[in-house]
Amino acid sequence: MDAGIVSYGVYVPRYRITPTEIGRVWGADGEGMGQSLNVLRKSVPAPDEDTITISTEALRVALVRGGIDPQQIGAIYVGSESHPYAVKPTATVVASAVGATPNLTAADFEFACKAGTAAVQTCLGLVGAGMVRYGVAIGTDTSQGAPGDALEYSASAGGAALVIGRERMLARVRRTLSYTTDTPDFWRREGQRYPSHGGRFTGEPAYFRHVTECARQMFEAEGTGPADYAHVVFHQPNGKFPQRVGKQLGFTDAQMRYGLVTPYIGNTYSGASLIGLANVLDHARPDERILVVGYGSGAGSDAFDLEVTDEIDRYDRSFGAPVQQYLDPGVEIPYAVYAKFRGKIHMGGS
Amino acid sequence: MSIARFWRETPRRYNLGGSKCGRCGTVYFPPRAVCPACPHHRETLAQMAPFQLGGEGTVFSYTVVHEAAEGFEMQVPYVVALVKTVEGPILTGQVVDVDPASVRIGLSVRATFRKLREEGKAGVIHYGYKFAPVEPGNGSALPPRRTERAVASAPTGADRTTA
Fold first, then answer.
1. In 3D, which of A21, A25, A45, A50 has the Cα closest to residue A34?
2. How far is residue A296 from each of residues A63, A77, A248, A269, measured CA to CA in Å?
3. pLDDT beyond 50 at B147
4. What is the pLDDT of residue A189?
5. ipTM more than 0.85?
6. Whole-model pTM?
7. N or C: which end of chain B has fewer CB within 10 A?
8. Contact yes or no for A14 and B113 at CB 8 A
């Protein structure tokens, strides 16, 4: 495939809360919950941050780093399950805020946690077909779990923007493929504030089946095995699932090292696998191969086989924060401040 | 604020779209239709070009707000500053991702993109610039350094500042 990643940017809000602090409020063993999920802390957006602002910050970093004229962007797709509007696109605000309007196509994607990787596939198609010079795929979420629900220990905020093109590719996409079924493991009905899920049903028939089938499909199509990849990135709803699926498929901890970011920032949903990929690209060397396998409830997996090019050594990352900075401890807040920031406190009035 | 008015101001709120006098080079934000710095104002009318500020500057003065304006209750205490941009204009804006006690005159800041206010639960959400510190180690992301370039559709003439 003659298309790939030409630039990327990440943004994660600065506030953090620990599972221990969440458990303290609900009379639960938060520390134990954090250990079983392999989540040390999760990011929390400020009251003036949402999917639109996070997406914009991530894309601005990507455009400056890549030296990309925003007027050359032909498509912007934002994947999220926490778009600020039910009707009115996130993508138009982002496009305007980076100076890409008006001569482009834009839309919002939703497919639980894999809306961002679906946007990448769409951009690869448009760029590969020569319809646009640059396509932008963004995966961002500011997702919430219901107070006290298991999801609350991991649901966080953050996003990544990938600029897809054919010139000066940092990583060429050799192949992308998907594995999609109708599986009701996790959902949120129209008008509902918090998502619902099938508990243990989100594991074997959902995450594990789709990720392993999609990865094996890629091995077969490319004639590869785990040893052929220097790095692997899985969707990471917690820190435990990707480690387990990686071992099942035959990957080592060293291959998963950079791609696993959820233990330090929580589950950024549509942002998760793309932020993991960005961290890999922060450390990747020319000629290395990367396997990315996203997952979205509902359900489906998108896999990407990437090959890092020599351009990675010339890529100027001096602008914007390296992903590692976001993985470091941020500003820790207590549950009461978290509840205030996330609008969980009833303020009276209408 | 009416939807139409905010929409008209989008180029400056989203992208710091100002104007620059083609005769003397003075930069204005918000954009101006004529250049008051030039002796013959009317002659500058056709020479004012759209100009996008880069978003970098320093705190010129500031205040810490404890009695919130409507819609800012969740952010108390918060900092509102006059920011002297490198291009010259002084902008008013909130400084975020910072401990109010650590703000000082001369603090280096950069524009960041944030939610400004919401028209209730069902109304439009307004976005625009705020500022965040650029010193290393403050835990905040670095907002973008955009290259200087013209903004195609920057409105001129209006004279309101900031969020």
1. A21
2. 27, 17, 19, 8
3. no
4. 94
5. yes
6. 0.94
7. N
8. no
Q: Which tens digits make up the pLDDT trace of A153-192? A: 999 999 999 999 999 999 999 999 999 999 999 999 998 9
Q: What CATH number does the domain located at A171-312 have? A: 3.40.47.10
Extents of the domains making up chain A: 4-170+321-341, 171-312
Mean pLDDT score, A136-140: 98
- Distance from the A14 Cα atom to the nearest Cα atom in chain B, whole angstroms: 6
Q: Which CATH class is domain A4-170+321-341?
A: alpha beta
The residues spanned by each domain of chain B are 56-133
Do the domains at A4-170+321-341 and A171-312 have one common CATH topology?
A: yes
| Residues of A designated catalytic | 81, 113, 235
- For the stretch A4-37, pLDDT in tens is 999 999 999 999 999 999 999 999 999 999 999 9
Return d(Cα B148, Cα B163) in angstroms, integer: 22
Closest in A47, A64, A320 to B74, CB measured: A47
In chain B, where do the E strands start and end? 17-21, 27-28, 48-52, 56-65, 78-85, 90-95, 108-118, 125-133
Identify the contact set of chain B against chain A, taking CB-CB distances under 8 A.
10, 14-15, 52, 73-75, 96-97, 112-116, 125, 127, 130, 139-147, 149, 151
Residues of A in contact with B73 (CB under 8 A): 347
Provide mean pLDDT across the span B67-92.
95
- Minimal-distance CA residue of chain A relative to B116: A48
The chain-wide mean pLDDT, for chain A, equals: 96
Closest residue on chain A to B17 (Cα): A99
